[in-house]
Amino acid sequence: MKNPLSVLLQMKNLVVLFYVCIAIIAFPSKSLAQQEPLVCPTIMISGPENADLNIVKFSASVSSKPSNSALKHKWSVSIGNIISGQGTPIIEVDISGFIQNCLKVTVEIDGLQPGCSNNVSAMREVSGCCIDPRLFDRYGSISFREERMRLENLAAQLEQEPSTEARIIPTDGRRNRSGLALRRAERARAYLIKKLKIDPARVIIETRRMFQPEPQPERMVFDLYIMPIIHETPCN
Questions:
Q1: Which end of the chain offers a freer environment for a tag, N or C, measured as fewer CB atoms within 10 Å?
Q2: b/e for 15-41, b at 16 or more Cβ within 10 A?
Q3: Burial of 220 by CB count in 10 Å (0-12 exposed, 13-18 middle, 19+ buried)?
Q4: Which of 22-26, 44-48, 68-72, 129-133 is the least confident region?
Q5: Do 135 and 125 have their domain in common?
Q6: 171 — pLDDT class (breaks 50, 70, 90)
């Protein structure tokens, strides 16, 4: 015959275990909860203003930023000198004495979400002719449904600008399998061509950065650029 005290202790342990299981089910650990997909903000460079003068102005904007985040801007230019605004969203550049056709302006922004690319460059005409690739959109590891919406926006813009083409630039993240970003870019290109009827010659995948290399992000990132169709070298 079992000891009544032993039976009572066993029943007590079962009751405790029952309530522990209920608590785990009702209040799962944050590590077990599904993480929200990383959606990186788009960084845009506008300008130059006063392009016919020796001092030109550029500004940077971010589509979204973390709450209570003070963004710091670090600018650099390929020609000329930054005379005001370093550290802020707006700079003035003195280009007097320079005769190059194009100015490359780069901004690096500290204070964005971890895992997102924080810098972008743009080529801007200051005299003569200049190829101007512009960043249309940037996103991370999102659902294909959301990606299709972004690609449809890109297709609509290409329809409005028939003399342009799209460049898809995939970047593998440190946490992703190597080559995964390229396969996703190929899927995006196929959707633009087959479903949205964009001329295949106007959708190009770039497997390298158009501008200076950027640090590899935590998760894969996709840049969508729009640029003029180049039939021949436009500038000597």
A1: N
A2: eeeeeeeeeeeeeeeeeeeeeeebbbb
A3: buried
A4: 129-133
A5: no
A6: confident
For residue 25, the SS3 value is helix
Beta bridge partners of 44: 61
- Per-residue pLDDT of 198-233, as tens digits, reads 999 899 887 654 444 456 677 889 999 998 775 433
The pTM (predicted TM-score) of the whole model is 0.45
Residue 201 domain flag: yes
pLDDT per residue as tens digits for the range 72-114? 999 998 888 999 999 999 999 988 766 555 677 889 998 887 8
**Residue where a domain stops, chosen among 68, 98, 130:** 130
CB contact at 8 A, 103 and 93: yes
Give the structural domain span for 229.
131-236
Strand partners, 103: 124
3-state helix, strand, coil in the chain (%, to 5): 25, 30, 45
Q: Quick one: how many helices (H) and strands (E) in the chain?
A: 3, 11
Residue 156: pLDDT over 90: yes
Structure tokens at 43: 């960084």
Give strand pairing partners of 225.
135, 167
